[in-house]
Amino acid sequence: MGDTLDLTGDGGVVKTILKHAKADALRPSEDLPLVDVHYEGTLAETGEVFDTTREDNTVFSFELGKGSVIQAWDIALKTMKAGEVAKITCKPDYAYGTAGSPPDIPPDATLIFKVELVACKPRKGSSMSSVSEERARLEELKKQRELAAAVKEEEKKKREEAKAAAAARMQAKLESKRNQGKGKGKSK
């Protein structure tokens, strides 16, 4: 508990794990980009809560990497697992910057979020099975291409060996004819 990670290397997004997820919990990925979160956002300077999903017990859902949330969230949530609770400290450059988000968030505000990653899911219209099936189909196509390339390479090698063997036979015939010509008509 209390593991603190500087996710950006400049202190811009710092995550402190408050509750670890189970070891086998899902993590957001290309296959699971939709996330559901509970959160409470506070201003670091005053401790004032400016937004929360806890009061009405709703979840906030969004797709990672699409710019629909502040940059700090895209960065931090990619590192979380379902069931994990973390405190995410966001410097202004990774939150609302010099503009802020009036009236609740002043300019140049550092924000602190307590975030629980409730779930991560596939995009609408796809399912885990269809994602898995697509991955398996692509893997099978890759194997077929590799096999076809290996067969082509083997055929090319056989053609080259056949050419070399034919050239060797031709060379042997020429040598044989030369040697036969040397022995004829020279006996006295």
CATH fold call of the largest domain = Chitinase A, domain 3
- Using the 3D structure, state the CATH architecture of the largest domain: Roll
Instruction: Tell me the major beta sheet.
Output: 7 strands, antiparallel
Give the SSE order as H and E letters: EEEEEHEEH
Summed over residues and divided by their number, the pLDDT gives a mean of 86
Which value, in Å, is the CA radius of gyration? 34 Å
Number of domains: 2
Helix percentage range:
25-40%
What does the model show?
By secondary structure, the chain is α+β, with helices and mostly antiparallel strands. It folds into two domains: 118 residues, Chitinase A, domain 3, CATH 3.10.50.40; 55 residues. 34% of the residues lie in helices and 24% in strands. It has two helices and seven strands; from the N terminus they run E-E-E-E-E-H-E-E-H. Strands 1, 2, 3, 4, 5, 6 and 7 form a seven-stranded antiparallel sheet that branches. The chain is elongated and about 110 Å long. The model has no long low-confidence stretch (mean pLDDT 86). It catalyses: [protein]-peptidylproline (omega=180) = [protein]-peptidylproline (omega=0). It is an enzyme of class 5 (isomerase). It holds the Pfam family FKBP_C. Its EC number is 5.2.1.8.
